[in-house]
Amino acid sequence: MADSPNCDLKSLSPLQLFERVTEQGEKVRALKAGKAPKDEIDAAVRMLLSLKLSYKTTTGQDYQAGLPPRDLVLINNGTTKEEDEDFVDPWTVQTSNAKGVDYDKLIVRFGSSKIDTDLINRIERAIGQKPHRFLRRGIFFSHRDMDQILDAYENKKSFYLYTGRGPSSQAMHVGHLIPFIFTKWLQEVFDVPLVIQLTDDEKYLWKDLTIEKAYEYARENAKDIIACGFDINKTFIFSDLDYLGTSTGFYKNIVKVQKHVTFNQVKGIFGFTDSDCIGKISFPAIQAAPSFSSSFPQIFNGKENIQCLIPCAIDQDPYFRMTRDVAPRIGQPKPALLHSVFFPALQGAQTKMSASDPNSSIFLTDTPKQIKTKINKHAFSGGRDTIEEHRKYGGNCDVDVSFMYLTFFLEDDDRLEQLKQAYTSGELLTGELKKVLIETLQPLIAAHQERRKQVTDEMVKQFMTPRKLAFEF
């Protein structure tokens, strides 16, 4: 019955809709666990999204697993537009819009604040230089309490940076570089410590990996992160599987968070069910703990009042909404956040990148020839069907993946604007735009590969050894 499209959803009560969504969610999980055919899983996911939209239309509330509707008042009998069908959580990002997720609506839904011109100008005044292109172009678009970080910095009070990586595969793709490129810039302009969490424990819990393979991926991913150019004297990279067993400060904070978050709350935030393993249910506390400086006594000399700034993609925000709620109750400052947009797959912004699909993105191991082939063959185009139509009507940069990638990686603002104008007017053809992207990414990836070759196992060990950094606290 859960999949029946003939049932009139409008005739169901909010509680009945809630039960339908829950039932369909369980079906999706079962299909994925059973490695069902992709088209069958996709159909089940579409039905789940449709049911969730019907639930929100009826109740005015987002569906939260384990939390039935608080108020059974019918607020809207209208239909929901297709472009509203965005679904974002820490594991799933789906949209039906070729332009990608509607980030303005996501800001409203998550309750964060938009990074506006005033904040960007204030950052520029604080650091005395031009803001990073990710800020100038809205790639980092949302924040929580960045104004407090700037207050602290302007008053000569220190803070620290925390970001992370879930090592689910040996090879990282260019999208994985985004938080590290930006975090490196933040570290350099503010001159602050940085901790990088490798959640190999999470990947063991969620993926079909052995614990040894998850740890191996963590160390391989660490090499790519180090190759971004982080300063070993200011950066600590740690594997959860390693660090949790050696740091009493880290584990104490995990336990404090665990005590102050109920099972019902974690189900509501993350959609966990009674059939999920207890490791998944307890994991959010592990991702929360690096937000507190006392988790790193060797760096901060045991101080508990150093505020944390977390650059991350917006899908990770649920972890830190939970963290910010808990922080005052355990005597810790709330972490501040900077949220980035999602990096689009080559096939389009409404498609999710997958490490199992080598054609969904450009990987850091790709050769110049592979980069050229992937972009020419797979990069979704905003151009017209024929050259004549393209010359007459122009291309659409809002959906063109090559232009989207250039927005991330082309440093020159004037050049980017010239390309946009030329493509929109029809002067620049799709093949020519792809050529610009190829010529931008090939040297970038080649340079990264050369730096990675210089990263030895000994260097990884040094970065991942708990130690004092080049700061006094």
Automatic annotation (TrEMBL):
<keyword id="KW-0436">Ligase</keyword>
<dbReference type="Pfam" id="PF00579">
    <property type="entry name" value="tRNA-synt_1b"/>
</dbReference>
<comment type="similarity">
    <text>Belongs to the class-I aminoacyl-tRNA synthetase family.</text>
</comment>
<dbReference type="GO" id="GO:0006436">
    <property type="term" value="P:tryptophanyl-tRNA aminoacylation"/>
</dbReference>
<dbReference type="GO" id="GO:0004830">
    <property type="term" value="F:tryptophan-tRNA ligase activity"/>
</dbReference>
<feature type="domain" description="WHEP-TRS">
    <location>
        <begin position="13"/>
        <end position="69"/>
    </location>
</feature>
<dbReference type="InterPro" id="IPR002306">
    <property type="entry name" value="Trp-tRNA-ligase"/>
</dbReference>
<dbReference type="InterPro" id="IPR002305">
    <property type="entry name" value="aa-tRNA-synth_Ic"/>
</dbReference>
<keyword id="KW-0547">Nucleotide-binding</keyword>
<dbReference type="GO" id="GO:0005524">
    <property type="term" value="F:ATP binding"/>
</dbReference>
<dbReference type="InterPro" id="IPR009068">
    <property type="entry name" value="uS15_NS1_RNA-bd_sf"/>
</dbReference>
<keyword id="KW-0030">Aminoacyl-tRNA synthetase</keyword>
<protein>
    <recommendedName>
        <fullName>Tryptophan--tRNA ligase, cytoplasmic</fullName>
        <ecNumber>6.1.1.2</ecNumber>
    </recommendedName>
</protein>
<keyword id="KW-0067">ATP-binding</keyword>
<dbReference type="Pfam" id="PF00458">
    <property type="entry name" value="WHEP-TRS"/>
</dbReference>
<keyword id="KW-0648">Protein biosynthesis</keyword>
<dbReference type="InterPro" id="IPR001412">
    <property type="entry name" value="aa-tRNA-synth_I_CS"/>
</dbReference>
<keyword id="KW-0597">Phosphoprotein</keyword>
<dbReference type="GO" id="GO:0005737">
    <property type="term" value="C:cytoplasm"/>
</dbReference>
<dbReference type="InterPro" id="IPR000738">
    <property type="entry name" value="WHEP-TRS_dom"/>
</dbReference>
<dbReference type="InterPro" id="IPR014729">
    <property type="entry name" value="Rossmann-like_a/b/a_fold"/>
</dbReference>
